[in-house]
Amino acid sequence: MDSKKAFLTGTTLFWLVMLGLVVADTRSTAGNRVEPAPFAYGSGQAASGGHCSGR
Q1: pTM higher than 0.70, yes or no?
Q2: 13, 30, 45, 53: which could join 40 in a potential S-S bond, CB 3.0 to 4.6 Å?
Q3: Per-residue exposure over 16-55, b if at least 16 CB sit within 10 Å of its own CB, e if not
């Protein structure tokens, strides 16, 4: 197997595993997550969940 084919195979396998993990995480989440919205980070809005909210 030449190096280009090995690289392509490894890259494809990596992204398939990553996609599988994202799908598994999304399916295992029941309802909404209790996390602050990504656009609220650093905006001064109070966080309502997550490890940094202090609640």
Answers
A1: no
A2: 45
A3: eeeeeeeeeeeeeeeeeeeebeeeeeeeeeeeeeeeeeee
